[in-house]
Amino acid sequence: SIPVERPQDAQRKGDGLVFLSPEDGVSLQGQGSRFVSTVKAGDVLVWGQVSAEVAAVTSDESLVLRQRPAGDPEAEWLPYKVLPRVDHSDMFAHVHAALAAGKAVGIFPEGGSHDQPALLPLKAGIAIASLGCLSKHPQMPLRIVPVGIHYFSGHLFRSRVFLDIGEPLSIRSALVAQYATGASSAKKQATAALMSDIESSLAALTISAPDLETLEFFWMMRRLVKTGSSAMGLSDQVTFARNFSTGYARVKDTEPVWKARKMIKQYSETLKSLGLRDYQVHKVMGNLARQRALGLLLLRSLMLVVLLGCFLPSYILGLPLLVLSRTISFFKAREAVANSTVKIKGYDVVATWKVMVALLVVPMLWVGYTAITCAIAPYVAPPPWDTEICLLFFFLSPFIFYGAVLAGDRMLLIARSLAPLATVALYPSYRAELVRERQELFHMIHALVDDNGWRPVPLSRGEGEGEGESESEGEGEGE
């Protein structure tokens, strides 16, 4: 791997306080500061909710910013942080050497992880590395391969991810020649042009929406489109998402779209209030007789009790892992959201901390429970059976816990099915109203998709043998 030092990794607290002059918006005054010895041109200062690059340091208590900060700086003295300018020449040299050796280099040009509904502005490092390498090795067959990463409930264990690999992007020879001149303005123009090509390639592979509400509208619309007479695979779902994200801006203010958004919002709120999911309304409530629903309700309730009784000891032993992973990841996500301007729910932080906690806690629990078993075994079994019990627990407990995890998945599916079964069996009139509402919404959404050309494959509008969703998809989806 090639290490990359980031400015935020070397950030430090600045001395004193700063205040932005309201007259020109670029003169930053200091109070108790030592700008001459602690700040250099090219460094970035962060205060309040704004940041800006330093153009020149004029004294210990005065400096000039390169441009007026975006947003609305607070008109008061505030503490600040200094993000020093990092020299990446050594890193680029390693990238050039790796590419010259015929290796592939993976780059995430979007920067920090986030859960925004659209892509963040891309960093220019990928363009600088590519153009710099081709300037040194003009005959190298260098290609940039765009990759879209689509998460389905990525903050949950055993969730799914879809990789959409696009067409390799060739770098125009004119841009390489322009960059090779060495002139600063020429380099910036060539870099900007290549970044535009890269952004276009990535935009064709990712799901983008102007806000979270629009993204939630798309998720529900995708669920409704999936449940036609033909199943929609993951690749078709991604194609549909791409068509939606590129075409939505053109029709977002039309009456059909606003009407569909209003109905989807009402339908989603109804489902949340009842603890139901869309696929349950489609697969269970729409196709099940009342008598059969009552029988399934009793049978699955019994199955749930039996499974819970069989695996309850394993769940009790695994409770520390569950509590610790959820609690720590929750607070870490909340902390990350509070300290970030690009995170909404911090689902990427949740996933990371769940894995980190599990890697630490699982071996500790395994060894700890084995030690407890070895300590108790002599009191319940005579030698040499106490040693046998200890060894059996040590070697078999991982398989037992894994079986409990699989059984837990099954129990979760059974528990989720009880609500729609109870609605069908006990409230037939309400069930008919909800199914009718979904059917109206189904036909409206399919008409909207057809009219705007968002459909990836020619699916029928009939709600026959559609593929329901067995899990909540989309809430953890990222770009």
Automatic annotation (TrEMBL):
SUPFAM superfamilies the record matches: Glycerol-3-phosphate (1)-acyltransferase
Protein name, per record: Phospholipid/glycerol acyltransferase domain-containing protein
Membrane-crossing residue ranges in chain numbering: 293-316, 355-377, 389-407
The entry's keywords: Membrane, Transmembrane, Transmembrane helix
Compositional bias annotation for Acidic residues: 465-479
Region (Disordered): 456-479
A GO biological-process term: phospholipid biosynthetic process
Signal sequence region: none
Keyword Membrane included in the entry's annotation: yes
GO molecular function term, any single one: glycerol-3-phosphate O-acyltransferase activity
Source domain of life: Eukaryota
